[in-house]
């Protein structure tokens, strides 16, 4: 499979189209095309994505919402899609905001704009030509293993799951695929078409009634829900593990055995090379399944361990203070350190009988607890940090509460990966960080990526302390820096405490009181009352990030 986004741009239907952002992704492989008519990122579940598709849309449902347009770009990228073909620009979406273009450039996600102010363009022209190109390439490609493996490597890390691989193969072969272990327990399942109502159990039972489970070149012809189907299987050899079985279900005609063998080869390469371990059904595998938002695998493992996953609403994450540890320590040393911290964390939390799971994931410790509240969460977190810091050195504790679904957990974990370093810059003295502070860090980054005019607008609350309008985002009057610095420490670090501010700035508390009163006088309002307090809070955070 070798068709790329660049190849598609040479088609007649896209000859007049322009790539306006995401040029770095033009070499990505295209496996198909799909229409997204209602662009609501919250409704796009992982199961809807086939991966490596070009998406066609006019974004009509979010035509005036720039934030939602950025969100849909990120969601499509997370789902493994390779580009957006935007129709009717100038008719529905009047113009693309630079934030949308910046998002696409950041992700190397091509945005391809059809000719503007044209209402006579048809989706079907691009769809038919792209699909024809892809199908011709597939017909020439008698050996598709290399192409599928290349597609897997282009997926985001969180998308590289057995479910995604099964979906790719099912889409490539136009058949339903099942993956079973040696006990015939489900390890992967992808239906064709995707909306098919067949269940794993129905297919397996139908097959087992008609045939002993031995390798054969001849498929079983049977009926499932009054539909005639052809079912066959092939063993899949996994290193240091019992044999697994890949089962194909095809309507109208049997799946060629050489295609099924190639599909088994893809699964074998994926499991062996990506170390996707089906043998381990322990708490480590359960934590990974929760973090990856893989509900099927999560429920299976949780059931075997007799753990009530639905009661888990709290996550703690422990990380080393040095956020960029990759160059300073060898991977094995970092992992050993994480294992040691996990043992200590588990021992500490067991004393409160609230712990469900604690595991070291690479160089990070992840702890999941049930939703019964601790008697005093703040004190517990402080006691834990004092104990762990004494034994393990400088670390961060990130607390995430009220996580209602595994999707919430997955989102929170991604926030930690993406915005913990920014959080550290905003709150350099904090070692206990919560989910709200990570979300605030994300908002600050969004402002900083939105352009100079918007940054200046968000820093306007500091204007009275500058003595002038901030014509440029970085423009600050030097002789008034001490007032802004004092306000920044007072709001971000000292929780509005005068003594704590003085301690952090090495100032007498009377000096701090004088400066706070001076700030109130210059600003002209009580900056501790909402909503003005939030605007000022955001302004000093941006000030700190831009220093």
In short:
The chain is 45% helix and 16% strand.
CATH topology of the largest domain: Alpha-Beta Plaits
Which stretches are low in confidence, meaning pLDDT under 50 for 5 or more residues running?
A: 324-329, 468-479
Q: How many H/I helices?
A: 20
Helix content: 40-55%
- Category by helix and strand content: alpha/beta
CATH homology superfamily of the largest domain: Reverse transcriptase/Diguanylate cyclase domain
How many beta strands in the DSSP annotation? Answer: 15
- The tally of domains stands at 4
Query: Reading side by side through the largest sheet, how are the strands ordered?
Result: 1-5-4-3-2
Task: Give the N-to-C terminal Cα separation.
Answer: 48 Å
CATH architecture of the largest domain: 2-Layer Sandwich
Can you characterise this structure?
With 547 residues, the protein is α/β, with parallel strands linked by helices. It is built from 20 helices and 15 strands. The chain has helices at residues 5-8, 66-78, 98-107, 123-140, 145-154, 162-173, 200-210, 257-273, 283-291, 295-305, 331-350, 377-392, 406-426, 435-448, 452-458, 463-466, 481-493, 498-505, 509-523, 532-546; strands at 18-21, 32-35, 53-57, 83-86, 111-113, 176-180, 186-190, 220-224, 227-236, 244-251, 312-320, 355-361, 364-370, 395-400, 432-434. Helix 13 (406-426) packs across helix 14 and helix 17 (481-493) crosses helix 18 (498-505). The longest helix is centred in the C-terminal third of the chain and has 21 residues, at 406-426. The two termini are 48 Å apart.
């Amino acid at each position: 499979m070798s068709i790329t986004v660049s190849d598609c741009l040479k088609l007649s239907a896209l000859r007049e189209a322009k790539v306006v952002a995401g040029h770095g992704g033009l070499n990505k492989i295209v496996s198909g095309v799909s229409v997204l008519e209602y662009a609501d990122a919250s409704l796009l579940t992982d199961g809807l994505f086939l991966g490596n598709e070009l998406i066609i849309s006019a974004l009509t449902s979010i035509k005036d919402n720039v934030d939602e347009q950025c969100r849909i770009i990120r969601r499509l990228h997370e789902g493994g899609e390779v580009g957006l073909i935007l129709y009717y620009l100038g008719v529905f979406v009047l113009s693309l905001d630079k934030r949308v273009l910046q998002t696409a450039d950041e992700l190397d996600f091509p945005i391809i704009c059809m000719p503007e102010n044209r209402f006579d363009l048809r989706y079907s022209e691009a769809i038919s030509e792209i699909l024809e190109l892809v199908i011709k390439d597939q017909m020439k490609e008698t050996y598709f293993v290399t192409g599928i493996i290349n597609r897997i490597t282009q997926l985001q890390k969180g998308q590289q799951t057995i479910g995604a691989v099964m979906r790719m193969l099912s889409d490539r072969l136009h058949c339903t695929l099942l993956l079973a272990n040696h006990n015939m327990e489900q390890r992967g399942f992808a239906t064709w078409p995707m909306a098919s109502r067949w269940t794993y159990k129905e297919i397996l039972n139908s097959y087992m009634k008609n045939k002993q489970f031995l390798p054969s070149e001849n498929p079983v012809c049977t009926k499932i829900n009054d539909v005639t189907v052809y079912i066959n299987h092939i063993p899949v050899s996994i290193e240091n593990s019992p044999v697994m079985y890949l089962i194909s279900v095809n309507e109208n005609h049997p799946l060629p055995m050489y295609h099924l063998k190639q599909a088994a080869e893809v699964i074998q390469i994926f499991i062996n090379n990506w170390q996707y371990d089906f043998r381990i059904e322990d708490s480590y595998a359960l934590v990974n399944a929760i973090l990856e938002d893989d509900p099927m695998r999560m429920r299976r493992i949780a059931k075997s361990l007799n753990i009530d996953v639905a009661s888990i609403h709290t996550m703690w994450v422990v990380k080393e203070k040095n956020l960029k540890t990759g160059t300073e320590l060898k991977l094995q040393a970092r992992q050993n350190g994480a294992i040691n911290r996990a043992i200590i964390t588990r021992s500490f939390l067991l004393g409160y009988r609230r712990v469900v799971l604690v595991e070291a994931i690479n160089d990070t410790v992840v702890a999941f607890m049930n939703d019964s509240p601790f008697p005093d969460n703040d004190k517990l977190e402080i006691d834990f940090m004092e104990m762990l810091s004494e034994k393990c050195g400088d670390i961060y504790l990130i607390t995430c509460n009220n996580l209602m679904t595994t999707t919430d957990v997955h989102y929170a974990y991604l926030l930690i990966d993406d915005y913990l370093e920014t959080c550290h810059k905003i709150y350099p003295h904090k070692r206990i960080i919560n989910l709200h502070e990570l979300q605030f860090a994300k908002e600050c980054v969004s402002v900083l990526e939105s352009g100079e005019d918007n940054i200046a607008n968000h820093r306007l609350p500091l204007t009275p302390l500058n003595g002038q309008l901030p014509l440029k985002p970085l423009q600050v009057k030097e002789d008034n820096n001490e007032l802004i610095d004092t306000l920044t420490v007072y709001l971000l670090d000292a929780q509005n405490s005068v003594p704590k501010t003085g301690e952090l700035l090495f100032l007498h508390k009377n000096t701090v009181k004088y400066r706070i009163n001076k700030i109130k006088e210059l600003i002209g309002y009580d900056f501790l009352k909402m909503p003005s307090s939030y605007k000022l809070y955001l302004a000093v955070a941006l000030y700190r990030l831009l220093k």
